[in-house]
Design a protein that fits this description.
With 212 residues, the chain is an all-alpha fold. It folds into two domains: 71 residues, DNA polymerase, domain 1 (Orthogonal Bundle), CATH 1.10.150; 100 residues. 57% of the residues lie in helices and 0% in strands. It is built from 13 helices and no strands. 24% of the residues are buried.
Length: 212
């Protein structure tokens, strides 16, 4: 046979990778809340200053992922900072104190110092900026009822007052309270909603109920 006698050359082709098997590289999704972004930017600015002083690329100081974790967890001291990914013993000694000072210079508003979920605090951060419920729903692209649910969580936690965030007059607030108290034996809001002739959104009733 020609192949066995060496009269023709056998050329082997490398198997091509299945396109479906190739993984597309994309940007790592950030876990930052909007309320943490200002601190993250301050940390990046500080990192750039240090990198320029040392004549090294910024990532040599700390990677973005490390700064994100700093902004998100806001360590109170160096002992806590050492547990952040990317902060080794040497970097902690060399850079830890200066980054800690940046973190301490940008504390969370008192309203956001709580144990509520991130999504509730996203809403509270906008409330803290002066936005009302409808504007928060629009900005976050969520339902108004969801905003009221977040308010209710914060009211129940004692962080805000229903009458203030709902912009209710004393008369309106008392009217809702009376309707809710008359139907205390029913966990549902519908009896109170009907008693008030549907004048108030269920979310508003939920917020006032949370203040009991």
């Amino acid at each position: 046979r020609p192949l066995l006698r060496g009269e023709i050359e056998l050329i082997l082709r490398k198997p091509s990778l299945d396109k479906k098997a190739k993984k597309k590289k994309g940007k790592t999704k950030t876990s930052l809340r909007s309320v943490d972004e200002p601190l993250f930017e301050l940390l990046r600015e500080h990192r750039l200053e240090l990198a320029e002083e040392l004549g090294v690329p910024p990532y040599i100081v700390f990677h973005d992922s490390t700064l994100e974790e700093m902004a998100r967890t806001r360590p109170e001291n160096l002992e806590r900072m050492q547990y952040i990914s990317g902060v080794g013993e040497q970097k902690l000694k060399k850079f830890g104190q200066s980054f800690l000072e940046v973190i301490q210079s940008s504390p969370l508003p008192e309203l956001l110092q709580n144990n509520l979920s991130d999504t509730v605090n996203e809403t509270l951060a906008l409330l803290n900026e002066g936005l009302e419920a409808e504007a928060i729903a629009s900005k976050r692209d969520i339902k108004l009822s969801t905003v009221y649910t977040h308010f209710a969580d914060a009211i129940e936690a004692g962080l805000i007052e229903a009458k203030a965030v709902l912009q209710l007059s004393d008369g309106e607030h008392n009217e809702i309270i009376n309707a809710l108290e008359m139907n205390m034996d029913d966990d549902r809001l519908k009896p109170a909603f009907d008693a008030l002739d549907g004048q108030y959104d269920y979310g508003i009733l939920k917020c006032v109920q949370a203040s009991f």
